[in-house]
Design a protein that fits this description.
With about 425 residues, the protein is α+β, with helices and mostly antiparallel strands. It has a domain of about 220 residues: FAD/NAD(P)-binding domain. Helix content is about 35%, strand content about 30%. It contains 12 helices and 24 strands. Strands 8, 9, 16, 17, 18, 19, 20, 21 and 24 form a 9-stranded mixed beta sheet that branches. A 6-stranded mixed beta sheet has the order 11-5-4-15-23-22. A 4-stranded mixed beta sheet has the order 3-14-13-12, with no helix packed on it. A hairpin with a 4-residue loop joins strand 12 and strand 13. Helix 1 packs parallel to helix 4. The longest helix is centred in the C-terminal third of the chain and has 29 residues. The radius of gyration is 22 Å and the shape is globular. The N terminus and C terminus are likely disordered.
């Protein structure tokens, strides 16, 4: 049974067709989340025949509740979405551009302020609920004739051959392609089935998220205070609301999930030094444990990993989904270039170009986040003095401040063409 979305139907409507034969594609992507859907859009736009397999049926927006977890989308990720023709749809649903960011330490007076005007940029980034991005991408997907959506569907087995990979689905025909892409999250059943090992560790921390409304305006500013147990961030949203990401020891997050609203508001305002006044209201609280994970290999013959299937990173700088989007854009660029040269996109020679491109950059970002977390999530006096001095020096150095902003916004480095401003791509061609 093949379930396909069509342009004239909403996400929850399907055409069911019976088939007992193998369906052939150029690429099979397992995982239809934001990263997998982005890869499918980029490939589908280039005429690559894609089968996208997703286990859960995306709900229509009107059937979903506001998500306490949000993404801080970088300028590079915004450009990827613009290149795919989905940014306008995302904006119509709701995004919040923030212009400033203030970072300070609970153990002293060190503070750093970042302002997009210093770089001549319209904003530092956008705060967006995941459901808005997901909906826009899926609407784009079912407008692409070269993309077939299998949803809800789960893979049952994977058969690797010298010239192809075959995937068996539940209640669907077998799929065959030159390349299999795993975009199915940090627990990645595909990665495990392919026996690709990972390295990493648990941080013994959890991130608690919630939507809160404060008595004072957030001033279009993202705020982050480093506490001994982990950072507390207030991310600005519309109508005076903020999304909080509070990283702390897991046992403390479990306690905060159970206390009443009044007590939670008091503890949250105190932890934030009441920078935005008192907490007037809050939504549902959620928390999840944090881990570092990195695949030993991003590619093997006929298969590649992208997004959380390849790497999981500490959320203190909000880079996780942005790194995944760069993976998706880079892999699509490598595949399309190989096809144009008549090369096999599933060959190890081709896929290693993607691995060399992205693995090193992702590892450096992971190490940087680990280092910051270790230095700032620490109450030892020498480290307190060191980090306060560092924050003050960065704040006084325009050069250092601008470099931090450029890296955080995805404006530097070896970026995929879709993540680069159109005028920069034109000048380099």
């Amino acid at each position: 049974m093949q379930r396909l979305l069509t342009p004239d139907r909403c996400i929850s409507d399907y055409i069911v067709m019976n088939s007992s034969t193998t369906s052939h594609f150029d690429t099979i992507i397992i995982g239809g989340g934001i990263v997998g859907a982005t890869a499918a859009c980029a490939l589908g736009e280039a005429g690559v025949r894609v089968a996208l397999v997703e286990a859960r049926t995306p709900l229509a927006l009107e059937e979903q509740q506001p998500d306490p977890r949000v993404f801080a989308i970088t300028r590079a990720s915004e450009r990827i979405f613009r290149s795919l023709g989905v940014w306008d749809a995302i904006q119509r649903q709701g995004v919040f551009a923030f212009s400033d960011m203030e970072v300070w330490d609970a153990g002293g007076k060190g503070v750093t302020h970042f302002d997009c005007a210093e770089l001549g940029e319209p904003c530092l980034g956008h705060i967006i609920e995941p459901r808005f991005i997901q909906d826009a991408l899926w609407q784009r997907l079912h407008s692409l004739a070269t993309v077939s959506l299998y949803c809800p569907a789960r893979f049952q087995n994977i058969d690797m051959h010298d010239d192809r990979v075959e995937v068996g689905l539940d209640d669907s025909p077998r799929l065959s392609a030159a390349l299999l892409v795993a975009a199915d999250g940090s627990h990645s059943p595909v990665r495990n089935t392919l026996r690709i090992k990972t390295q990493g560790h648990h941080y013994q921390q959890s991130s608690l998220v919630a939507l809160v409304k404060t008595s004072q305006p957030h001033r279009n500013t993202a705020w982050q205070r480093f506490l001994p147990g982990g950072p507390l961030a207030f991310l600005p949203m519309a109508d005076g609301w903020s999304s909080i990401v509070w990283t702390m020891p897991t046992e403390n997050s479990e306690r905060l999930l159970t206390i009443d609203k009044e007590r939670f508001h008091e503890e949250l305002a105190a932890a934030f030094e009441q920078r935005l006044g008192t907490i007037l209201e809050s939504g549902e609280r959620e928390a999840w444990p944090l881990q570092r994970l990195h695949a030993e290999h991003y590619v093997i013959p006929r298969a590649a990993l992208i997004g959380d299937a390849a790497h999981a990173i500490h959320p203190l700088a909000g880079q996780g989904v942005n790194l995944g989007l760069l993976d998706a854009a880079a892999l699509a660029e490598v595949i399309v270039a190989a096809r144009e040269r008549g090369k096999d996109p599933g060959s190890l020679v081709v896929l290693r170009r993607y691995e060399r491109w992205r693995r090193g950059d992702n590892l450096l970002m992971m190490m940087a986040m680990d280092g910051i977390n270790q230095v700032f999530s620490n109450a030892r006096f020498p480290l307190q003095r060191l980090r306060n001095l560092g924050l003050s020096l960065v704040n006084r150095s325009g050069l250092a401040r601008r470099q931090f902003m450029k890296h955080a916004m995805g404006l530097v480095g070896d970026l995929p063409k879709r993540a680069v401003a159109l005028e920069e791509v034109s000048s380099s061609d």
